[in-house]
Write a structure and sequence with these properties.
Tachylectin-2, Chain A; mainly beta; single chain; 29 strands; five-stranded antiparallel sheet
């Protein structure tokens, strides 16, 4: 698990490992005074064997949204007592190669072969003299375990500006899900998927067909998980002025998806996450109002459209500082983490429980 702490003017990326049924003491990965720390654009995390890769956002110039993606790769080894030892492999190396002071962020990553596939939103084309040519793009690259970057490519030339991306690996190879953006006259913000097939990325394919027309970014991206050839995607939409959380399954590596399944009770806020369970169903988390409270909900959903009643994990806040709750399933145990706000301070909270 990774998170960012602020210590006076210094931002610190920390991690802890779950070893022998307990969390190790937090350790610092890297720190800096020139980071772009943002409630919605938080560090990604991927693990390949003993190697962990995560990232930070570092300011590249004086512009508010001019920052670069820097990757950090290190090994975690656990000794016989459960103590965690770390050995840094490559620290704070640049993901993208454009050299333009612009927005680069919303990174997602997944382990693949001898490295990681990494996706991100890239603003290198947002600095054009002509406003109509200023487009946020989706890019992807492969990073091997020595930190060598290859296969960098533009996957989509026009996407939503500040919704998180989601990257995962199917039995056929990598896939990326993100909030797409149609031409300016319509401004449709639907979920799309691209797949790595025969050495190249497929054309974007819409998931769900929400047809959410919005002249702005909702800052509310998708969540994604895979299990062999199965794919689950959860997302938020407010199309037709009906805020809701939807989930769709694919049984053929993301080539086609079934009809979206609604999980929320109404007026959802979103900020979703999702994970497959061993029985082939999926667990989904999201925020929604409950009277005067904002609750973090979790529900189990299946490919046939059936789903359990949501479980309220905790009350939280709709404020930006409450961030994006995170969900992981390990065997029969569910871990849910969120940012708890207490006045001017905040801390990471976590609960774990077993599903019956």
């Amino acid at each position: 698990m990774t998170w960012v702490e602020q210590e006076d003017s210094v931002a610190v990326l920390k991690y802890a490992a779950y070893v022998q049924d307990k969390w190790t003491q937090p350790q610092a990965v890297t720190s800096g005074t020139d980071w772009f720390v943002n409630w919605a654009d938080f560090p990604s995390l991927a693990v390949n064997g003993e190697t962990i890769m995560t990232n930070i956002l570092q300011k590249s110039s004086e512009g508010t949204y001019d920052y670069d993606v820097k990757l950090n790769m290190f090994n975690v080894l656990n000794d016989v007592t459960g103590n965690t030892l770390s050995r840094k492999r490559t620290e704070n190396f640049l993901l993208h190669t454009d050299g333009i002071s612009a927005e680069h962020g919303f990174v997602s990553s997944a382990a693949y072969d001898d490295g990681f596939y990494v996706s991100w939103l890239d603003g290198r084309n947002t600095k054009n003299a002509s406003p109509e040519d200023n487009q946020m793009t989706l890019r992807n690259a492969f990073v091997n375990l020595d930190g060598v970057i290859s296969q960098e490519s533009e996957v989509d030339a026009r996407v939503c500006d500040c919704c998180n991306t989601a990257t995962a690996i199917t039995s056929n190879g990598p896939i990326v899900v993100y909030r797409d953006r149609s031409e300016a006259k319509l401004e449709i913000r639907n979920m799309s998927i691209v797949r790595w097939v025969d050495g190249q990325w497929t054309a974007p394919q819409t998931i769900g067909n929400d047809n959410w027309q919005l002249n702005g970014c909702p800052v509310n991206g998708p969540a994604l998980d895979t299990q062999d050839g199965n794919v689950v995607v959860s997302w938020f939409t407010a199309a037709d002025n009906d805020p809701r959380v939807l989930t769709a399954f694919s049984m053929n590596n993301g080539e086609q998806f079934g009809a979206p399944i609604r999980l929320d009770s109404g007026d959802a806020i979103g900020r979703v996450d999702t994970q497959f369970m061993d029985d082939g169903g999926a667990l989904v988390s999201w925020l929604e109002p409950d009277g005067d409270d904002i609750v973090l909900q979790v529900a189990r959903v299946y490919k046939d459209g059936l789903h359990d009643e949501p479980i309220a994990v905790t009350t939280t806040s709709a404020a930006r500082q409450s961030g994006y709750p995170q969900l992981e399933v390990l065997g029969d145990v569910v871990f849910v983490a969120w940012t708890d706000l207490d006045g001017d301070s905040s801390q990471v909270e976590m609960v774990s429980f077993e599903l019956e």
